[in-house]
């Protein structure tokens, strides 16, 4: 191989990479990188990834203990006997790309090469188990072996390079020089001789070279005792600070100048070549062992591991993840911009100030009526108002004393809005509160109904207020409350917010009906798209012509003008995008445990970022990164199938000829976009057959049946989630030869035959007309009957599908237990039993289990183990519940157990038995150690008293939840109940207990039952 093409390829690669436009952001913390993982369950041939490379088409190739596989970001294609390469190669340890685009793989029996869709074995006269590394030099392939360096000629012959000892690694730098790792030294090629550079001596530690990587003017040397930089000009080693003592197995020098190094128990990242940051490998998996590192042409970092498969790390648009508390992530509920430009975050442990990435708690939980800072707002005096779950506080910002307002004692404050002239409005769980400086007046919206729980307040120009309530939208005007005519579509819905997007447009967010847009006197709900329809929406803000909608599933964006057109016309598709979703599975999204509801302050926007409260503290989405076009998908046609024969188009690009009788065609295609493969959308057409492009969505195969004779061109193009289309279409020619009767001569003869037949048919028409009419009538009658049967069958299938979808929506995907949706839809009917009968002294027992310190279990064993323990705990509760009980996954680590038909006199004993069963059940940890899951249990009874069926079961649920909260706060690993006091009127509780629990306890309506500080319950 000549030197010129090799150097030209390297120069081109360096020039492209050195643009550094897409390299991983050096300033972004490792935990903020987007991490995706693939393993055997996704099609990876084997869990250990030793080698990674990329071909000219953009496909990624991985080498494992069980062969090689091609990866397009969506699926793996393993290469073995089906691709004509014989037995599956084992222990594919290294992969390199030559100047001509050929990929070479080293395995334990020799070499494999890939070029133009074809994999070829090269095993004759090549070293077997002795080969340990592979590199590309200007004049051929180089193999590092236990017998020294060998050069591969034509992929079939190995020639020994004189003067080289047993070596363990080889690399070629930008100038074409070869470097070898041999024992405790590196060897530099200088013409025909080798210069030895011994590693610096260490105090008592054994030292050997394990990996090499070449960078500009420096060589990076991985050893059994850390990472070193070797200055080629001064021939001097320098240890990289922070890596001493670590066994380095693989080193990668990226195009941007970063260096990554990994090994059995470590991963390092260095920017300046002097100091390295040790990455917490727990972020990569349970116990990853780094075996391969690779940077693709789109600057994604790929990590191969011994135990956790393949991972990709890339920059997303999550600019920051602010941990409010260093010990562990905590739930954030609200965000608000302060007058000094800093950001305030309300959490479950008070209020924090975020400024220049420094986090300071400015209001501790003990200074608040309730530790949960649910809502934040500043007034025109720069006073910070803090709404909590059971009261309101305020303080002069930034360092005034915290003042608790007695008028709000026991009230959950959901929304705080300050107007001019000192007027303020507060949405609470017990109506609207209007304030004038220090005087407050409570306004009941609809006492005893969900509409009295006000979630949002929006002042209007005419002095009225739009109220978002748990029973729909209401308008308050001069002391009167009414329902706007346009709010009928959300009547009785749980409305979380009403936000003004523009002077003429509102957005209405709900929990159970998605969201809608108000223009003029019409509210139009976004209902066509199933993903948007199921959003639990919290609220919206507008910036840069985009609407950002915060929801329980993630953050969603829309062009403002598209929403306006939809609001005016009631139709038209929305080009929505999901920058971040809770699981990262929605098209175009990265994973972020977003987003939490709060009050008005559920989302904050400045000129550069969107700030959101989440269950893992606060995240910020970088608007510039979100707008930046980072990737153009490259489409490929992979295979075609006709007459049940499939052909690999990557290996054989010849036109397709459909010679069979059926003339059916199936085309499998894909596109390469490794940063967001899930976000790709495909369009295809068969020129000469399709009138327009077919929108295939995420589907990667096209089907045609009974094609006519002719010449066609199949085209496919792709579009990213950022609406970036592929630069050119992938195409393949398709020919369908005519059958004999479709040829010109055959058609002329057939025409003459048809004319003769028509003449004879005309002579017989009169005779057979009546018979034909009779036959036609019978046939039509039969067809009608057949269509009627088919329609009935289709309707039955549709009903079955709808039932299946309903069941899936009411099932918790982690534990398989019913979820809250099931509870809201069915619990009342279930409590009444199959026949609606209940014994006079019987009741239903409601127990809320709250697992204590479960976050510690996740931190110790990992989230996968935590999920497994949640499934086990739910299963054990379901077994304890028996045939007359049900268990609901309430959320997080909370479970609700309901048991009906319990004699009221035996209820306390039944609580004891169920709590003990949960305590005594041992759950295996990942290492086999049995774990006891301690829990705080609160219980209540329904009906609240004998014959008190007029009070809804939801009140008993609130009481059980309040009891569990008290046990968790005061005792942990205990149990307790909240019950109706003897002789108390149950009707006093018909409106629920939220916001007035303390008053009900003081008034003797409710009593606590056996609240213990962790003591075991009595026998």
Quick summary:
This protein is 17% helix and 40% strand. It has 1019 residues and is α+β, with helices and mostly antiparallel strands.
What is the strand content? 35-45%
Count of alpha and pi helical runs: 11
Task: Estimate the global geometry from the Cα principal axes.
Answer: globular
N-C termini distance:
86 Å
Which sheet architecture does the biggest sheet show?
A: 6 strands, mixed
Low-confidence stretches: 1-21, 1015-1019
Largest beta sheet: strand ordering? 68-69-67-72-73-74
Q: Would you count the extended β strands for me?
A: 74
Q: Structural class, from secondary structure content?
A: alpha+beta
Report on this structure.
The protein is an alpha+beta fold. Helices cover 17% and strands 40% of the residues. The chain contains eleven helices and 74 strands. Strands 68-69-67-72-73-74 form a six-stranded mixed beta sheet, with helices on both faces. Strand 11 (140-145) and strand 12 (148-153) form a beta hairpin. Helix 7 (854-861) crosses helix 8 (863-881). The chain is globular and about 95 Å long. The termini are far apart.
């Amino acid at each position: 191989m000549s030197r010129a093409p090799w150097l030209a390829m390297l120069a081109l690669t360096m020039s492209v990479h050195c643009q550094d436009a897409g390299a991983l952001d050096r300033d972004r913390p490792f935990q903020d990188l987007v991490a995706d993982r693939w393993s055997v369950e996704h099609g990876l041939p084997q869990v250990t990834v030793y080698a990674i490379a990329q071909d000219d088409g953009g496909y990624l190739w991985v080498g494992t203990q069980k062969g090689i596989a091609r990866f397009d970001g969506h699926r793996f294609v393993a290469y073995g006997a089906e691709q004509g390469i014989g037995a599956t190669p084992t222990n594919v340890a290294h992969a390199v790309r030559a100047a001509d685009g050929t990929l070479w793989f080293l395995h334990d029996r020799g070499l494999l090469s890939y070029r133009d869709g074809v994999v070829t074995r090269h095993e004759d006269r090549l070293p077997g188990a002795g080969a340990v590394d592979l590199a590309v030099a200007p004049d051929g392939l180089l193999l590092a072996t236990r017998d020294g360096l060998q050069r591969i000629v034509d992929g079939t012959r190995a020639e020994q390079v004189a003067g080289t000892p047993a070596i363990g690694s080889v690399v070629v730098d930008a100038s074409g020089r070869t470097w070898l790792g041999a024992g405790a030294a590196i060897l530099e090629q200088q013409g025909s001789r080798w210069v030895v550079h011994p590693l610096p001596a260490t105090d008592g530690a054994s030292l050997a070279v394990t990996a090499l990587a070449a960078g500009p003017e420096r060589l990076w040397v991985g050893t059994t005792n850390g990472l070193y930089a070797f200055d080629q000009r001064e021939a001097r080693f320098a240890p990289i600070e922070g890596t001493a003592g670590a066994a380095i197995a693989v080193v990668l020098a990226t195009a941007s100048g970063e260096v990554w190094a990994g090994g059995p128990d470590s991963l390092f990242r260095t920017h300046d070549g002097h100091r390295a940051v040790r990455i917490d490998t727990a972020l990569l998996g349970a116990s990853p062992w780094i075996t391969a590192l690779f940077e693709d042409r789109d600057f994604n970092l790929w990590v191969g591991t011994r135990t956790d498969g393949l991972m990709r790390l890339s920059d997303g648009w999550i600019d920051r993840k602010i941990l409010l508390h260093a010990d562990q992530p905590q739930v954030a509920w609200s965000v608000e911009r302060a007058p000094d430009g800093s950001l305030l975050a309300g959490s479950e442990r008070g209020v924090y100030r975020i400024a220049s990435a420094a986090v300071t708690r400015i209001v501790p939980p003990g200074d608040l009526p309730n530790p949960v800072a649910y809502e934040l707002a500043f007034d025109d005096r720069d006073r910070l108002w803090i709404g909590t779950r059971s009261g309101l506080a305020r303080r002069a910002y930034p360092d005034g004393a915290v003042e608790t307002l007695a008028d709000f004692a026991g009230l959950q404050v959901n929304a705080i809005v300050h107007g001019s002239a000192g007027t303020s409005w507060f949405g609470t769980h017990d109506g609207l509160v209007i304030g004038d400086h220090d005087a407050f007046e409570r306004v009941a919206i609809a006492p005893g109904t969900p509409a009295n729980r006000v979630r949002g307040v929006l002042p209007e120009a005419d002095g009225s207020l739009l109220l978002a309530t748990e029973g729909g939208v209401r308008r308050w005007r001069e002391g009167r409350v009414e329902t706007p005519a346009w709010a009928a579509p959300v009547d009785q819905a749980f409305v979380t917010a009403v936000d003004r997007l523009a002077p003429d447009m509102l957005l209405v967010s709900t929990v159970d009906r998605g969201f809608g847009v108000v223009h003029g006197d019409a509210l139009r709900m976004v209902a066509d798209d199933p993903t948007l329809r199921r959003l639990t929406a919290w609220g919206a803000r507008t910036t840069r012509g985009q609407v950002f909608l915060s929801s329980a599933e993630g953050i969603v964006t829309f062009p403002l003008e598209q929403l306006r057109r939809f609001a005016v016309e009631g139709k038209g598709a929305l080009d929505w995008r999901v920058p971040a979703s809770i699981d990262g599975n929605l098209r175009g999204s990265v994973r972020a445990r977003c987003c939490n509801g709060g009050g008005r302050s559920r989302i904050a926007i400045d000129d550069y970022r969107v700030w959101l409260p989440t269950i893992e503290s606060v995240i910020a989405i970088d608007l510039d990164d979100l707008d930046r076009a980072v990737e153009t998908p490259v489409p490929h046609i992979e295979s075609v199938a006709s007459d049940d024969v499939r052909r690999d188009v990557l290996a054989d690009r010849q036109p397709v000829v459909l010679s069979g009788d059926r003339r059916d065609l199936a085309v499998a295609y894909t596109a390469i976009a490794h940063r967001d493969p899930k976000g790709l959308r495909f369009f295809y057409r068969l020129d000469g057959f399709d009138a327009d492009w077919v929108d295939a969505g995420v589907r990667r195969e096209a089907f045609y049946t009974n094609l006519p004779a002719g010449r066609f061109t199949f085209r496919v193009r792709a579009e990213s989630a950022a609406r970036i289309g592929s630069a050119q279409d992938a195409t393949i020619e398709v020919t369908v030869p005519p059958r004999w009767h479709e040829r010109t001569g055959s058609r002329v003869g057939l025409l003459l035959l048809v004319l003769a037949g028509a003449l004879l048919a005309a002579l017989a028409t009169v005779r057979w007309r009546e018979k034909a009419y009779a036959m036609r009538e019978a046939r039509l009658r039969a067809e009608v009957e057949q269509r009627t049967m088919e329609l009935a069958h289709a309707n039955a299938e549709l009903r079955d599908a709808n039932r299946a979808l309903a069941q899936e929506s009411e099932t918790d995907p982690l534990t398989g237990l019913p979820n809250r949706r099931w509870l809201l839809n069915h619990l009342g009917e279930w409590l009444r039993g199959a026949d609606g009968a209940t014994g006079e002294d019987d009741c239903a027992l409601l127990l809320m289990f709250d697992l204590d310190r479960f976050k510690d279990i996740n931190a110790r064993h990992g989230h996968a183990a935590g999920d497994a323990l949640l499934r086990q705990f739910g299963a054990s509760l379901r077994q304890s519940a028996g045939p007359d009980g049900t268990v609901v996954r309430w959320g997080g680590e909370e479970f609700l157990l309901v048991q009906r038909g319990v004699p009221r006199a035996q209820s306390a004993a039944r609580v004891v038995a169920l709590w003990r069963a949960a305590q005594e059940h041992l759950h295996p940890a990942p290492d086999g150690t049995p774990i006891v899951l301690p829990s705080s249990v609160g219980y209540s009874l329904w009906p609240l008293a004998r014959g008190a069926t007029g009070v809804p079961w939801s009140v008993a649920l609130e009481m059980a939840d309040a009891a569990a909260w008290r046990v968790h706060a005061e005792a942990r690993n205990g149990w307790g109940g909240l019950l109706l006091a003897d002789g108390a009127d149950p009707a006093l509780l018909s409106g629920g207990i939220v916001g007035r629990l303390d008053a009900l306890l003081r008034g003797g309506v409710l009593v606590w039952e056996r609240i213990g500080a962790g003591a075991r319950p009595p026998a």
